[in-house]
Amino acid sequence: xxxxxxxxxxxxxxxxxxxxxxxxxxxxxxxxxxxxxxxxxxxxxxxxxxxxxxxxxxxxxxxxxxxxxxxxxxxxxxxxxxxxxxxxxxxxxxxxxxxxxxxxxxxxxxxxxxxxxxxxxxxxxxxxxxxxxxxxxxxxxxxxxxxxxxxxxxxxxxxxxxxxxxxxxxxxxxxxxxxxxxxxxxxxxxxxxxxxxxxxxxxxxxxxxxxxxxxxxxxxxxxxxxxxxxxxxxxxxxxxxxxxxxxxxxxxxxxxxxxxxxxxxxxxxxxxxxxxxxxxxxxxxxxxxxxxxxxxxxxxxxxxxxxxxxxxxxxxxxxxxxxxxxxxxxxxxxxxxxxxxxxxxxxxxxxxxxxxxxxxxxxxxxxxxxxxxxxxxxxxxxxxxxxxxxxxxxxxxxxxxxx
Length: 403
Ligand code: FES
Ligand SMILES: [Fe+2]
Fold this sequence. Notes:
With 403 residues, the chain is an alpha+beta fold.
């Protein structure tokens, strides 16, 4: 890293073209394992909404960075997380994807070791006591769990920092959204033939928007200019007083939310006029999720790598119970729009992935507008212990937050 600034200071942009990540990082199996350990094994990863772990003894199982994970609620309703692995000889403890334990115990399906919901080993099935064995030395292996405003996250690191310390600054930006009260109205899931980083990079730039997302560009006029926010324009100060949506980043005149026709169905309680006028606000918790906040609903988009060149894309649309019970509620008007945009992105990501293996293509290049892609890629470098090319961002949301 030399002394030349990487980022422009007067507007959002790269001061100089930057090398993209090595192409092999998008398909090499050994590199994929490294990312699983160093990135997915050490960051707060979104799992599910808290409502899907409803009440004492509810459980769900997940794969996080290739690791089997069990999340459950104890008798007091508190979330607990463990590796889904028995301490006897390593069997999976809970083979089911979800369910409710019929007693406050977990029994291994193999030889019936039994653990209580705090992870203590309470019984060893048919095995007789034997010298050199102490139950207290074989509890379940814990993982850190955080429940943030109705979203459940897990961190596999032994010394995980708190979710609040890591992501608190960014999440303050959507404090007015009644996130705890929201319920899942619809969900979507699709396998994409691309490396997980390809999806993140696509999400972090709008150079593709005019070409790939005509409907979205009509709704969010600034995207039609291939930028994401007011300050992405080198001349933004000349238009600092203008509030037209193609300058401010808000929705087209008359539109209230991201939906097929731009109309909203009610408004979430607690939002200010500024919250609504923003059109969209994002909370980004890399590497697993971004959460898009709108006037009448919230959408999660979750990324789960399933191999070097495959990932699962899943989305949830969260609504207020009052909205869900409206007699005229038309969910499809909202979910259809987000699905359209995600399918367009998915196709673009698969096209991107398909070209990366050209033998003489070593790495791409990032242009001025791709500052967020750069920050994401530099974050990846940092997580992997590779030299970073710029400064880590203070808050990833800040640039798009205040256009
Ligand atoms: S592996 Fe679980 S009891 Fe034997
Ligand atoms: Fe896109």
